[in-house]
Amino acid sequence: MSADAQTKIRSPEDLAQLRQELQRLRHPERPCLAICAGTGCLAYGVNKVIDAFHAELELRGMADRVEVLATGCPGFCERGPLLTVRPQGIFYQRIQVKDVPEIVEETLIHGRVIDRLLYQDLRTGEPVVHEADVPFYRLQRRDILWMNGLLDPTRIDDYIALGGYSALLKALYTMQPEEIVEAVKKSGLRGRGGAGFPSGRKWAEVRHAHGDLKYVICNADEGDPGAFMDRAVLEGNPHSVLEGMIIGAFAMGSRQGYVYVRNEYPMAVTNIGLAVEAARSHGLLGEDIAGSGFAFDVAIRRGGGAFVCGESSALMQSLEGNVGEPRAKYVHTSEKGLWERPSCLNNVETWANVPLIVNKGWEAFAQVGTEGSKGTKIFSLVGKIQNTGLVEVPMGVKLREIIFDIGGGIPEGRPFKAVQTGGPSGGCIPESMLDLTVDFDELSKAGSMMGSGGMIVMDDRTCMVDLARYFLAFLKEESCGKCVPCREGIARSLEVLTRICDGLGQEGDIALLQELGETLQGFSLCALGKSAANPVLSTIRYFRDEYEAHIRDRRCPAGVCKPLIEYWIDPALCTGCTACARPCPEHAISGDKKMPHTIDLLLCIKCGACYDICKFNAVLIRSGESPSPLPGEGSGEGSVPSLAVEA
Amino acid sequence: MMEPSAVDRILERHGRDPANIIAILQDIQAEVNWLPEEDLRYVCRQLDVPFSKMMSLASFYRAFSLKPRGKHIVQVCLGTACHVRGAERIADTIARELGIHAEGGTDAALQFTLETVNCLGACALGPILVIDGEYHGGMTSAKATRLLAQVKKAGDNGHDDNGG
Q1: Which of A329, A435, A564, B100 could disulfide-link to B105, CB 3.0 to 4.6 Å?
Q2: Which residues of A touch B81 (CB under 8 A)?
Q3: Are A148 and A236 in contact (CB under 8 A)?
Q4: ipTM of the assembly?
Q5: Are residues A435 and A544 both part of a single domain?
Q6: What proportion of chain B, given as a percentage, has pLDDT over 90?
Q7: Tell me, what CATH number does A101's domain have?
């Protein structure tokens, strides 16, 4: 593919020369179709769009003049597949194969903008032409993600042309290892994987630890459900992570590194693998890196699908080929980690920050963020939100800005209820706290945590008890079972939550959950157990009334908990189209054509098929209201408390 | 069950190093779709690893299956974003259609295996259903039923577009 992949870089001059050559080949004015080929857009079927562009350009004899660039994920997953037409920077969203000829004809050839494909500002309804003006992007600060949309992650040349590996050469040729550790310390960088441990301190511990053999490890076992920023960085810009690791290895005196990557992310596995090979063939990895005499290499290990392996000591056990059980850390892994040797484990995003610190200097890095949390953080904004996607913001912005200004608020005009941060270890933050500034310390104070950066937005149709049950069910599966508080505490908490959701809760259950939670926090071996109670305790703290409604009134206010709800058809809205009757697996829906239908509650298994399919929103869910299937319509007050009969 | 020579190739690829045992199991499963006991015993003999350790590994990691899996793998994402958008309903529907447990399993005819996954990282498309590696977003129970019927009907001949 590229000119001379075999050329080894032996000095800073070599790199500068190669960069110049690569930049010459990439005229800034050359037309380029930059199409997101990240996992999200691939799931939308972007591969067919890319193929269609190639075919269309070939057909018109333009293939050699226009570049089709399959980029990493720029983050606006909601609107995928995404296309940016350069050099103008015209931004098209939700493009389909059928749009391809028109884009080539109108935009590429005649330079005209196709209004239909533009993004419309959610507030003003105005179309936005340029990528940079889309509010979702404009309000972010993309120090890490900016490159994702500009390069093909499978080509090292693209990364080098954009300035890649200059930090590594700067570190190797102009800085002492001690100086780099000091710079990372002073930058204030804290681990992006969850706990927020100061990275510089960890680096210094590893550097000064005894032993000749030391390891650096990249934790890419991104297990938090609803979090995918590490996937996007590793898939979309793997060289930035690798460069960070090589700099770290040089600073700490390590010769061997590992990337432990989640096997559920096949593209991340492939792209980091290609990056390692390309870096080797360019002399940027292996013996005598860039002619400096420093030697370091990286091996890639795929995870086995165990959430607990995101914990550092468990991950190291897994790397050694063992069951991934954590151990008590009286001795830090920076002293005795992988194979009992000093090991520095950092998360994907943490490593990707390192080249930035070296390039711009720690002073510039420390200018961004809050007192205790420096730099930017990438969040994955998901759930009941208009703009699902990756959001990179400086530490210290308000939750409200992320959710409403960048995220566009809640779909269908529904009310915001809570945002869950920090994954299964985090907590729920209610509306009253939306002006909280987002950094490591503020989120902890609110009973949640930064975690790896998942942010799940919920509206009035999310049941907080069910959510707590969901996380505990997840954690019960993922607890390794080594320590009793975690193994038993989670299982017992889950039992209590399940019975509450089933409408069988008892007085005293809330206090019991709190007691179990405190035991988990106080006595579990690792962070999985210690933080397992956060989803329960934070929902009790902020949404106690929902727990009480389940326990006392046998009612699920959000209409989620199956045993507590029933489906019914509003006769005023039903048009009698019969669409709901057909998919009903129990034939529980009856009614004549063009006449309101009814659901036989004795047959209904509450599968929701009718609810999903109704185009008139006539199928409704109710809980704890009049059980009669055909009420005269009212607010249902003074009614029989629900149909909570479930074994 | 694999030919010993095929297992040997996998072992060679990983330097016959017991530290790489997870990767070895991943590669075996990639070829035969599950981990047959004979193959595990063979690996144990070759690498001098006790069978008890092998079983503790193979049962600990979620990715490994110690039972044969169906011809088609159906994965329902139960990540938080999919959960709040009603993914359980999809899992329930598929389980009912296939006559297997909603937490996962294989049907009697070894045609379908239902698996739940903790997050595929494509949250904008949730709820997500993956059939044989192909992603289907914006799932509803009715859509899921239709997709399953399509796969059943298509048998072996070919792939079709994802419905929208």
Answers
A1: B100
A2: 225-226, 382-383, 388, 456
A3: yes
A4: 0.89
A5: no
A6: 59
A7: 3.40.30.10
